[in-house]
């Protein structure tokens, strides 16, 4: 539970007036109607005619498409922000639902554009894309055609798309509903799975142990059904991949992430070959907690003994200074978030938990939502979200389509900003125990974002492969594959007793197969940029800002070249893990110094 101590953040609320004046602002409906009318005109003008356009005609169509999207994104973003700040107000939920339906209907109207463009012959498309008239849209248009080699005929695509609703989407929803309905029995009360999971962060080991036991028990009864749904989704995907002739189970995901099978294999290899790093850390953590060995439910236990709360103004100073030391321009942009009320900072009833940065529409800056409690974690979260904010502000002149990034590069600026701030906190801290706590927190986050996600990717790989080779997987078999992947990660550093059915609470495996590795990709990519900065110093500042200004207008590999990195070189992943290993060396040294080694 969040603390309610006074931090000075209590009155720090965002001003959404740059979007609308309130949920009753008549411009909300005006903009929706405008977008609907424009989409109708767009469809009238272009439906069935995309193949006939010349390069300037195509450029005009994309620009108009983007303008219509921006028109609807504005009220939609506003609704989500108002709702996130106060979810308890029924009018906010109603606005989100109403605008969500409008936006979905609008998307259906505009869908033909991407489909018709993907259907254009390669030769014709290449000729068009070589035209200077399409300079601004080349990457966007190319991305829309990337699935083309795997598309089927139009009638086949139509059948597959329509059957998805009663097929894989329905199974995936059933899975989510099953998870949502799970209740965990704690102290005679039935609580939601999410609330139970939060108890694994408790400092009291008995709380963690009983909670974990109750979760294992709660996962039992529906396991047969969830295993069946998982099998069905694995089968559906294998049919899809076979019909479309994708080389591997993860190829379609890699394509969507704008990366290649080779790059992802290199990432997996680099990470799995260094499982000694998390194993060393978990052994250190056991010593910090005074245990012989961690149980799986001890991994999220707090190691910090430092209860110091930092006031909001101090957090602001630390983060702004960290950005300003890097670049005065970056520091100025980050300062604007505070000066111009782009941040909603405090913990409040009915507010969304966690933190996010929402980039809005061309012409309007991003907004940041936090639940600031004053602990060190929430200072790093502030730095993280302001990294997204800086990225959003710098890329915004490119417009809606070219500024948005795939998941693989979305964390570029956030992880970097967090690293800048972390180094500053560490430099200011002289007490070895506090330094150790800081480092432990940093290593733990890195392990959760890299090693843990790749171990989950190995489980997915094993499950998809086994389903294709051996047919339907029994519940015991799925558990076996899950525990194999987890044991590879933990070695003998963590006991997995009772952990068998825990694969089945992770919605990514059924909702978005292949999703999880992108977290590791994004983190290690950003860490590599940060290390390049540590080596090269100020010479890296301008290229880095240029990288952010490029938003998502180029493929990740091209973006990496701006800062002198080669994403096709497997060494990029290994060097990030080496950096993590060095931080762990330092943490072990400090632990020995304070008598916990
Ligand atoms: Zn982020």
Explain the layout of strands and helices:
Layout (H helix, E strand, L loop, with lengths): L25 H21 L8 H31 L4 H30 L2 H8 L8 H7 L9 H13 L1 H14 L1 E4 L2 E4 H6 L6 H15 L3 H22 L6 H6 L4 H12 L3 H13 L5 E2 L16 H15 L1 H12 L3 E4 L9 E3 L8 E6 L3 H20 L4 H4 L3 H4 L1 H17 L3 H18 L1 H20 L4 H16 L3 E2 L12 H4 L5 H20 L4 H9 L6 H7 L8 H23 L4
Parallel strand pairs: 3-7, 4-6
Antiparallel strand pairs: 1-2, 5-6
* Strand order, largest beta sheet: 4-6-5
Structural class: mainly alpha
Overall number of strands: 7
Number of distinct helices: 27
What is the helical fraction, as a range of percent?
Answer: 55-70%
Radius of gyration, taken over Cα atoms and rounded to an integer in Å: 25 Å
Mean pLDDT: 92
Largest sheet: 3 strands, mixed
Q: Tell me, what's the shape?
A: globular
Structural commentary:
The chain has 597 residues and is mainly α. The protein has helices spanning 26-46, 55-85, 90-119, 122-129, 138-144, 154-166, 168-181, 193-198, 205-219, 223-244, 251-256, 261-272, 276-288, 312-326, 328-339, 376-395, 400-403, 407-410, 412-428, 432-449, 451-470, 475-490, 508-511, 517-536, 541-549, 556-562, 571-593; strands spanning 183-186, 189-192, 294-295, 343-346, 356-358, 367-372, 494-495. A 3-stranded mixed β-sheet has the order 4-6-5, sandwiched between helices. A two-stranded antiparallel ribbon has the order 1-2. It has a two-stranded parallel ribbon with strand order 3-7. Helix 20 runs antiparallel to helix 27. The longest helix is centred in the N-terminal third of the chain and has 31 residues, at 55-85. Zinc ion binds at residues 384, 388, 411, 414.
């Amino acid at each position: 539970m969040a603390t309610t101590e006074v931090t000075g953040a209590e009155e720090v609320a965002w001003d959404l007036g740059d979007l609308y004046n309130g949920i009753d602002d008549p411009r909300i409906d005006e903009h929706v109607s405008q977008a609907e009318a424009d989409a109708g005109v767009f469809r009238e003008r272009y439906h069935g005619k995309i193949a006939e356009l010349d390069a300037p005609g195509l450029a005009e169509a994309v620009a108009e498409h983007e303008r219509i999207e921006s028109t609807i994104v504005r009220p939609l973003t506003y609704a989500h922000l108002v709702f996130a700040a106060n979810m308890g107000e029924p009018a906010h939920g109603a606005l989100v639902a109403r605008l969500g339906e409008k936006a979905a209907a609008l998307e259906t109207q505009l869908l033909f554009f991407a489909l018709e463009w993907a259907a254009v012959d390669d030769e014709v498309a290449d000729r068009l894309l070589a035209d200077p008239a399409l300079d601004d849209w080349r990457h966007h248009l190319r991305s829309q055609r990337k699935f083309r080699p795997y598309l089927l005929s139009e009638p086949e695509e139509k059948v597959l798309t329509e059957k998805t609703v009663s097929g894989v989407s329905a199974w995936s929803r059933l899975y989510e509903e099953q998870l949502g309905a799970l209740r965990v029995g704690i102290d005679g009360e039935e609580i939601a799975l999410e609330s139970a999971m939060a108890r694994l962060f408790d400092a009291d080991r008995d709380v963690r142990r009983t909670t974990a036991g109750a979760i294992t028990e709660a996962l039992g009864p529906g396991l047969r059904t969830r295993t069946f749904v998982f099998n069905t989704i694995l089968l559906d995907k294998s049919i899809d991949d076979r019909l479309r002739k994708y080389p591997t189970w993860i190829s379609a995901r890699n394509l969507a992430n704008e990366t290649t099978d080779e790059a992802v294999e290199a990432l997996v290899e680099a990470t799995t070959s260094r499982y000694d790093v998390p194993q060393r850390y978990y052994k250190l953590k056991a010593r910090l907690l005074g245990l012989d060995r961690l149980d799986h439910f001890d991994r999220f236990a707090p190691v910090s003994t430092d209860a110091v709360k930092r006031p909001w103004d101090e957090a602001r100073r630390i983060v702004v200074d960290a950005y300003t030391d890097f670049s005065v321009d970056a520091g100025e942009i980050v300062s604007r978030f505070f000066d111009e009320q782009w941040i909603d900072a405090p913990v409040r009833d009915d507010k969304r938990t966690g933190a996010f940065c929402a980039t809005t529409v061309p012409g309007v800056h991003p907004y940041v939502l936090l639940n600031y409690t004053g602990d060190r974690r929430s200072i790093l979260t502030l730095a993280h979200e302001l990294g997204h904010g800086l990225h959003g502000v710098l890329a915004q002149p490119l417009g809606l389509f070219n500024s948005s990034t795939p998941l693989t590069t979305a964390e570029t600026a956030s992880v970097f900003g967090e690293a800048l701030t972390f180094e500053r906190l560490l430099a200011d801290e002289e007490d070895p125990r506090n330094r150790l706590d800081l480092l432990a927190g940093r290593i733990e986050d890195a392990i959760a974002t890299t090693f843990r996600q790749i171990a989950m990717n190995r489980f997915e790989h094993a499950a998809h492969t086994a389903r294709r080779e051996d047919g339907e997987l029994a519940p015991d078999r799925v558990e076996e594959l899950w525990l194999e992947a987890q044991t590879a990660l933990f070695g003998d550093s963590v006991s997995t007793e009772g952990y068998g059915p825990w694969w089945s609470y992770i919605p990514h495996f059924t909702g978005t197969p292949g999703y999880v590795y992108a977290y590791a990709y994004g983190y290690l990519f950003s860490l590599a940029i940060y290390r390049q900065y540590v080596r090269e110093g100020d010479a890296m500042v301008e290229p880095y800002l240029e990288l952010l200004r490029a938003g998502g207008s180029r493929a990740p590999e091209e973006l990496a070249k701006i800062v002198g990195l080669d994403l096709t070189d497997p060494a990029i992943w290994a060097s990030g893990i080496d950096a993590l290993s060095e931080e762990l060396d330092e943490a072990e040294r400090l632990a020995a110094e304070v008598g916990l080694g």
